[in-house]
Design a protein that fits this description.
By secondary structure, the protein is of the alpha/beta class. It is built from 16 helices and 10 strands. The longest helix is centred in the N-terminal third of the chain and has 30 residues, at about 5-30. It is globular and about 80 Å long. This is Exopolysaccharide biosynthesis polyprenyl glycosylphosphotransferase. It is a multi-pass membrane protein.
Length: about 450
C-alpha cells in the first residue's frame, strides 16, 4: 500500500468517527425534535453549532490522534471533546426550541436523551480508538530510532529512553549513542527517526545538517535561547532574510483581552465552585479548628510581591518550604483538597484583584526564587507575565518535572502567547484535574 493511500485511510477513519458522532446526536434528537428532520433554520444552525464546536474541541483536546497516542488517552480526550460539543449543541437546540410553536419560555428538557446520546457516542469512540490504532500499526511499522546524547548529560537519557520504550509500536529504539561517537553518521543510514537530547550548539547544528541530508525526521531538546529565537517572525529587510524577536512581553491589546478573559472566567468559576468553597471551609474548621485560608508571599509580573491565597492544607505553625508528595505536614482534609486540585480555588480572589491571571507561570515561593536563579539565571524570564492559576507546565508537567523543564514550558507559553492559547489551556485544565501525576508547583 502506498504512503498516500495509507494517509487517506487514516483521514477517512477520522472523518468517519466525526460523522458517526454527529449522526448519533441528530438521529436521536431528530426523533423528538421535528425541526431537525428537514432543512429548517433550527436544523442548519444546530448542525453548524455541532460542527464548529466539535472542530474547536478537537483542536483543544486532539483530533483523534490514532498512531500518535495510546488508545486510552484518545478515548479520554475525545470523550471530553464530544461531551462539551454535545452540551453546547444541546443548549443551542433548547434556545431554538423556545418559540410560539413549541415552548413559550426557555426550558431544559430531554436530558435523558442527551445522556443516552453521550453513552452511544462514547462506545463509538472506544471502538474507534482501539480499531483505529490497530489498523494504523498494521499499515505502519515502528520508526527505527536512535537517541543522541551528550556524555555530560546523564539525567535526560533515562527519562526519554523510558518514555519512548512505552511506545514500542511507534518507536523501535536501535540504541543510544553519544554526540561525539565516530560511528554516528554511519548509524543514520539505518534509522528513520533521531532524538537529540541536550548537546552543545555546534554539535546539534551538525546533527541537524546530517538529518536534513539523510531526510530524517528528528526531535531535539531546546535550550532557553532556542525557545526565545523560535518565537520570532520571519521577515525580509531589503533583500536580506531576518527574524524579528519581540522580548517586551504581551502587547497592550493582548493584556486587555487577557484581563477580560480572566475576569469572566474567575467570576464564572467562583459562582460554579461556591459549594466547594463552603464544604472546604467547614471541613478545614472541623478538622483542626484552624484558619481556613493560607496566605504566602509570592512573586508575579516584574517581580511584584503579593499574598497568594489557598485553602490551608497543612498544619499551622510548621516550617515553610515546598511540599513533597508524601509530606507529613499535610492534614487529612488537605490531602483530599490537593488530590482533587481544589486547594488553589481561593486564587480566584487574586485573579479578580489583578495580581494573577487564569493562565501563566505558577507563582513561586520567595524562598525558592534566589536558589533557582543561582542555578538558572533565566528563571526571572517567567516574570514577563502575571503568575497564573494554571499553565503549560502544570498541564504537561509532572510532580517531579525538573525546574529547568518547567521553566522551558513556561517560556514556550510566554514567547508564543495568544488568547487562543489561554482558551486551550483553560479547557485542558479540566483534564489535568483528574491526572494523578500532574504538577502542583515548581
Amino acid at each position: 500500500m502506498s504512503k498516500n493511500l495509507k494517509s487517506l485511510v487514516i483521514v477517512a477513519l477520522k472523518g468517519f468517527i466525526f460523522v458517526f458522532l454527529a449522526a448519533v446526536f441528530f438521529y436521536l434528537f431528530g426523533k423528538e425534535n421535528i425541526a431537525l428532520q428537514n432543512w429548517s433554520r433550527t436544523a442548519v444552525i444546530t448542525g453548524s453549532t455541532f460542527i464548529l464546536i466539535g472542530i474547536l474541541m478537537l483542536k483543544v483536546y486532539g483530533p483523534f490522534e490514532i498512531g500518535i497516542k495510546k488508545s486510552k488517552p484518545i478515548i479520554y480526550n475525545s470523550t471530553i471533546a464530544i461531551i462539551l460539543t454535545d452540551l453546547a449543541t444541546f443548549f443551542q437546540l433548547m434556545v431554538m426550541n423556545t418559540n410560539p410553536n413549541n415552548n413559550q419560555s426557555f426550558k431544559i428538557e430531554q436530558l435523558d436523551l442527551l445522556f443516552y446520546t453521550m453513552i452511544i457516542q462514547i462506545v463509538g469512540i472506544v471502538v474507534f480508538a482501539y480499531l483505529g490504532n490497530y489498523i494504523y500499526f498494521k499499515m505502519y511499522k515502528p520508526s527505527r530510532t536512535i537517541i543522541v546524547y551528550d556524555k555530560n548529560d546523564q539525567e535526560s537519557l533515562p527519562k526519554v529512553n523510558h518514555y519512548l520504550e512505552r511506545f514500542k509500536l511507534q518507536y523501535d529504539i536501535l540504541g543510544c549513542i553519544t554526540v561525539d561517537d565516530p560511528n554516528l553518521e554511519a548509524m543514520l543510514f539505518n534509522v528513520d527517526y533521531v532524538v537529540i537530547l541536550e548537546t552543545p550548539v555546534s554539535e546539534r547544528k551538525r546533527l541537524v545538517d546530517l538529518c536534513y541530508k539523510h531526510q530524517l525526521n528528528f526531535m531535539f531538546a531546546p535550550s532557553i535561547s532556542d525557545i526565545v529565537e523560535l518565537s520570532g517572525f520571519s521577515m525580509v529587510v531589503d533583500d536580506k532574510a531576518m527574524v524579528e524577536v519581540n522580548i517586551q512581553g504581551l502587547s497592550f491589546e493582548q493584556r486587555v483581552l487577557k484581563r477580560i478573559l480572566d475576569i469572566f472566567v474567575a467570576v464564572i468559576g467562583a459562582i460554579v465552585s461556591s459549594p466547594i468553597w463552603i464544604i472546604a471551609a467547614i471541613a478545614i474548621k472541623l478538622n483542626d479548628g484552624g484558619t481556613i485560608l493560607f496566605k504566602q508571599k509570592r512573586a508575579t509580573i516584574d517581580g511584584r510581591i503579593f499574598d497568594v491565597y489557598k485553602f490551608r492544607t497543612m498544619k499551622e505553625n510548621v516550617e515553610n518550604y515546598s511540599a513533597t508528595e508524601h509530606d507529613d505536614r499535610i492534614t487529612s482534609v488537605g490531602k483530599v483538597l490537593r488530590k482533587i486540585r481544589m486547594d488553589e480555588l481561593p486564587q480566584l480572589i487574586n485573579i479578580l484583584k489583578g495580581e494573577m491571571s487564569i493562565v501563566g507561570p505558577r507563582p513561586e515561593m520567595l524562598e525558592n526564587v534566589d536558589s533557582y536563579q543561582k542555578v538558572l539565571p533565566e528563571f526571572a524570564y517567567r516574570l514577563k507575565v502575571k503568575a497564573g492559576l494554571t499553565g503549560l507546565a502544570q498541564i504537561e508537567g509532572k510532580y517531579n518535572t525538573s525546574p529547568k523543564d518547567k521553566l522551558l514550558m513556561d517560556l514556550m507559553y510566554i514567547e508564543n502567547y495568544s488568547i487562543w492559547t489561554d482558551f486551550k489551556l483553560i479547557l485542558r485544565t479540566v483534564v489535568v484535574i483528574f491526572k494523578k501525576d500532574s504538577t502542583e508547583g515548581f
